[in-house]
């Protein structure tokens, strides 16, 4: 099985490794390899894959920018998949389509990505994950202001990136059926608690209750999974203990 993964970041690499461990051939494609989803007609240098995995990302809170990036990303992935009669597996976020989260530009972009992907491809699988254990440090790095780091108040049920990659790889190989798969970790916590537990950050965290309807939704569980989500360990504490 040939798998073309669009994106070459943390998740994309973990998905590649899990696919290879299952006997597939998997390649990463992004701007660094000459494949830009924002090109009007992205060069089709992805071989003839059986499955196209979409794991691109942009860091922005601007709704227009996020919508534009994620809609073009999913159209590009879809075009490659259709050209080769391949399946399309998209990585998304639990809760991103909830109306109360659309005030957040990034989530509005992910919701648009899902809408377009669902409308344009019949052989689509969406793996929606909760925030990763890795997200706590990623947030600190992104939200640094000198010695301080801003931590938005969020109730979360985090999951290890490696566990998400495992679910995506099972979707790729057909161990899981086409459709929508939600995946989450075992425990409900807050981004604040996760941040406080991180070793060696060198930053003083400052809690930021995000104002408005979206901020309230962040605090009151809009990012938590429903009852059908697959729950996968390790817990955040176990993950930290393992030195991940
Ligand atoms: N962080 C979380 O907790 C979390 C939770 C749930 C879901 N997710 C989702 O997981 C996905 C992957 O996130 P990640 O953290 O692995 O991302 P990442 O490490 O930031 O990697 C993003 C990748 O996108 C590629 N990319 C960016 N612009 C591109 C373009 N114009 N054309 C082609 N490729 C482009 C980049 O490669 P180049 O720079 O080489 O182009 C990069 O390899 C995202 O969609 C995110 O929403 C994240």
Strand order of the largest sheet: 2-1-3-4-5-9-12
> Number of DSSP helices?
8
pLDDT average, as an integer?
Answer: 96
| Distance linking N and C termini | 30 Å
Tell me which CATH architecture applies here.
Answer: 3-Layer(aba) Sandwich
CATH topology: Rossmann fold
Instruction: Give the CATH class.
Output: Alpha Beta
Give the names of the bound compounds.
NADP nicotinamide-adenine-dinucleotide phosphate
Architecture overview:
The protein has 244 residues and is an alpha/beta fold. Helix 1 (10-21) crosses helix 5 and helix 2 (63-83) packs parallel to helix 3. The strands form three sheets. It has a seven-stranded parallel beta sheet with strand order 2-1-3-4-5-9-12, with helices on both faces. The protein has a three-stranded mixed beta sheet with strand order 6-7-11. A two-stranded antiparallel sheet has the order 8-10. 37% of the residues lie in helices and 20% in strands. Bound molecules: NADP nicotinamide-adenine-dinucleotide phosphate. NADP nicotinamide-adenine-dinucleotide phosphate binds next to helix 1, strand 4 and helix 4.
Short description:
The chain is α/β, with parallel strands linked by helices. It has one domain (2-239): NAD(P)-binding Rossmann-like Domain (Rossmann fold, 3-Layer(aba) Sandwich), CATH 3.40.50.720. 37% of the residues lie in helices and 20% in strands.
Features:
244 residues; seven-stranded parallel sheet; three-stranded mixed sheet; 8 helices; 20% strand; globular
